[in-house]
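Budget justification note: compute hours in this period were largely spent on complex prediction jobs such as the one shown. Inputs:
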Amino acid sequence: MTGFILKDLLTLRRYMKLIALAIVVFAAMTWYLDNAAVVTAMIAVQFAMLPVTTFSYDHLAKWELFAQTLPVSRREIVASKYVLSIAFIALGTIIGIGLALVVGLLKDEPADPRDLALMGGFIVAASLFFHSVMIPLIYKFGVEKSRFMLLAVAGAAALIAALMNLPAPDWLMKASPFAMLGAALAGAAALMAVSFFISGAIYEARDL
Amino acid sequence: MTAIRVEGLRKRYPRFELKDVSLEVPKGSIVGFIGENGAGKTTTIKAIVGAIRRDAGKIEIFGRDFARHGKALKQTIAVVTEESFFHEEFAAKDVALVLRRLYDRWDDALFRHYLDRFNLPPDKRIKELSRGMRMKLAIAAALSHHPKLLILDEPTSGLDPVVRSEILDVFLDFIQDEEHAILFSSHITTDLEKIADYIVFIHDGRIILSRPKDELIERYGIMKCGLDEFQRVDAADCVGVRRYGFGCEMLVRDRQAMRRKYPHLTIDPAAIEDIMLYYARGGQS
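Corresponding output:
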């Protein structure tokens, strides 16, 4: 499995140089923006998209057939994508939070560690949720179709919520942010575990 | 003992079907797997390596059920296909970095030996390599974990004769070890005439011929006659017929017997390509 993760990292080498450049730009933006959260989230999104990009590269190189000839099981191949996703989510969040922290200190306006922790936690939960939905879709429908499907589902959900004008329930408004974060992380982790088994089942059954 | 045994393999697609495909690749031999495009060669190979789920049939590699021991067996197999490999941004040294982590018996010195033999620069990216160089890299990577079985899907397709010859030499070296075996799918039958020990011919998803190559070369023939004489040729003696102008040519299974039976007709040896063409056309042209 480590061979597959290394393969993806090597595939992303050039792409990661672009991300490094983007981080520099984001760092400059953070300096001039009052709200570092936006930039932190943008960095996290960049990293969260990297595993999806590896699927595109795999498709371009027709890698899947060759991968099938290598001494790894299909479930290990799927597992390597999930490990890579979690690693990039963690890395993106750490860099984003780190940037907000450093810029805050340099500007002599240090961010509240509690706010940063909450922000990082929610970014991790949102990214885990995103990958939990996206990866099985990719295994089933391919990268391009999955992107559109996810956009369509997210758009439809947002539209329905806006049309129904749903108020936030009282219990949610009164809940402690850290309790909400704990629930969000636990839910996202559980969803990711379910997602892994679904992706494994889809990939096991697929003809390459 | 056989390296590959396929029995009663079936796979149904909406517009194509593998029909009870059975074949064997004995140890110490090269089996040429021939057939026109779309006949089922790649589908059969995909089923052998587990890339597609079969509807029925059994696949054994070195006597072990592939469905149960696939992962372990793949340590002893190398597969080279025409188009599926690493991403174009990879260089040979990157390929080695990855494969070293996957194969228990990966051999860096052997990989370097093949890179030198093929004049492949370790730092050059795949996208900068010619088609022939890419194939050589795939073959170098395939051979560097000491496999016992090579499965090749059109490895020489689209390559010039010099590169093809170079690659065939590597396969001949590989097969010197009697524990080794090669399944070589190709529609370049001249390559197979040079190196194959057996020929398996698949047509429309069905194996229609499976014989030692020398037997095909020695026994099959092209019998030529005028259209008037053709009326007197026993239909059972012909595998296939090509008519042209005032005469016709027939593929016959036993040219010595046919020489005795039709001493006045010209009979030339048949090439593998002739045999494939006549069988594929099913006796009519």
